């Protein structure tokens, strides 16, 4: 039995309230809070990047045993900090994991962390006495006053994969699909993504529908075999758009259960925003931490991972006995409750602040005064990124 033994998320200490942003933009707040299902959006200070967020998510999980037995570190990201050096190599150093671990990044839009999880599960099945650290970490940016502004966000999810996991066993059968399309992409020369929103929504729904048919055919499983389905959530209404069509012929009791648990799975994303590769696993944490009273061991959870461009996969897992004892619900509630609500002016200033690197590749700065995280980005020296730890 191999699966997720521990799981945690991190998001920056600052956010913008989307009702306030809507009023400032001259938009009906319901368009954001009801139309796409978002309430708050995490906004990272310059001292938080893909590396520091990944370290902040992983650090609370690690025991001495983990540090000595993690032989694989995989980071899924589409907002890496270097065109060559992996985020995982920074993480290996910052977390002081033993020197003989393999450390790599995987990139395919929002699918990267799922590719990493599957790689890690296969690795541990071959090496049952070893563990793997899988991280999805990203900053989603489309620009101020852009059409995608309210589907931005920032955060990271870290998972330890092991034999005899304490949270969920990943089942062996999964189905993936690839089509080369341009629904969302970011050329190397662009700081923000290019999005065909309508086409992207259609592709997401189509991929889920096709994969569900194929998955059902290969496994002979139906929706009655599932207690919940977790989705990649660029915004919280997206997964529901894909789920509803396959629920049309379901018995009311099963339909109601899946829709109720879907709502539980959206709570964290609603208050954090789109975190790209970590989004699906943020959904999973939201589900098991908010619906824990109704979920029990052996309940099957479905996962739909989608990365524009496009690659998607349906896979499943079964909750294990005692999974509730390994959840970090109180820590997550504290993290979200203690965040700072930015004014529109502060949001604009924080969003537009950039590194001003001189010809020698230098720009060092102090940790942002709002940033209370353990790991933080300090700037560059001789073109090398530097990180601090509190």
From TrEMBL:
InterPro entries noted in UniProt: HMG_CoA_synt_C_dom, HMG_CoA_synth_N, HMG_CoA_synthase_prok, Thiolase-like
Binding site for (3S)-3-hydroxy-3-methylglutaryl-CoA: 28, 142, 241, 274
Keyword terms, alphabetized: Transferase
Residue ranges occupied by any Hydroxymethylglutaryl-coenzyme A synthase N-terminal domain in the UniProt entry: 2-163
A GO BP annotation: acetyl-CoA metabolic process
Active site: 78 (proton donor/acceptor), 110 (acyl-thioester intermediate), 232 (proton donor/acceptor)
One Pfam short name: HMG_CoA_synt_C
GO molecular function: hydroxymethylglutaryl-CoA synthase activity
Domain of life: Bacteria
Residue intervals of the Hydroxymethylglutaryl-coenzyme A synthase C-terminal domain: 174-244, 257-356
PANTHER family: 3-HYDROXY-3-METHYLGLUTARYL COENZYME A SYNTHASE, HYDROXYMETHYLGLUTARYL-COA SYNTHASE
Annotated family: Belongs to the thiolase-like superfamily. HMG-CoA synthase family.
Protein known as: Hydroxymethylglutaryl-CoA synthase
Organism: Vagococcus teuberi
């Amino acid at each position: 039995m191999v699966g997720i033994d521990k799981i945690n998320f991190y998001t920056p200490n600052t956010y913008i309230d989307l009702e306030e942003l809507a009023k400032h933009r001259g938009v009906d707040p319901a368009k954001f809070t009801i139309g796409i299902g978002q309430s708050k959006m995490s906004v990272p200070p310059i001292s938080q990047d893909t590396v520091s967020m990944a370290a902040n998510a992983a650090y609370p999980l690690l025991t001495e045993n983990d540090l000595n037995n993690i032989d694989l570190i995989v980071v899924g990201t589409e907002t890496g900090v270097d065109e060559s050096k992996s985020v995982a190599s920074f993480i290996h150093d910052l977390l002081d994991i033993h020197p003989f671990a393999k450390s790599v990044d995987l990139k395919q839009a929002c699918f990267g962390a799922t590719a990493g999880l599957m790689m890690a599960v296969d690795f541990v099945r071959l090496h049952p006495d070893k563990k793997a650290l899988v991280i999805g970490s990203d900053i989603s940016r489309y620009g101020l006053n852009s059409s995608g502004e309210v589907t931005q966000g920032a955060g990271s999810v870290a998972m330890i994969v092991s034999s005899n996991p304490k949270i969920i066993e990943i089942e062996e059968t999964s189905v993936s699909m690839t089509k080369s399309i341009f629904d969302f992409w970011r050329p190397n020369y662009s700081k923000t993504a290019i999005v065909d929103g309508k086409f992207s929504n259609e592709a997401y729904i189509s991929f889920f529908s096709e994969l569900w048919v194929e998955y059902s055919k290969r496994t002979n499983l139906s929706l009655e075999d599932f207690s919940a389905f977790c989705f990649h959530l660029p915004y919280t209404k997206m997964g529901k758009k894909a789920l509803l069509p396959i629920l049309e012929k379901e018995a009311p009791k099963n339909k109601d259960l899946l829709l109720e648990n879907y709502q539980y799975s959206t709570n964290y994303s609603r208050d954090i925003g789109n975190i790209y590769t970590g989004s699906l696993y943020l959904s999973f944490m939201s589900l098991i931490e908010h619906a824990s009273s109704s979920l029990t061991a052996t309940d099957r959870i479905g996962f739909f991972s989608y990365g524009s461009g496009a690659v998607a996969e349906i896979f499943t897992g079964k909750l294990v006995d005692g999974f509730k004892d390994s959840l970090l619900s109180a820590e997550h509630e504290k993290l979200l409750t203690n965040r700072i609500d930015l004014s529109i002016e502060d949001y604009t200033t924080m969003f537009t602040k950039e590194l001003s690197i001189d010809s020698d590749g230098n720009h060092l700065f102090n940790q942002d005064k709002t940033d209370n995280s353990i790991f933080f980005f300090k700037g560059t020296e001789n073109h090398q990124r530097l990180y601090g730890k509190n």
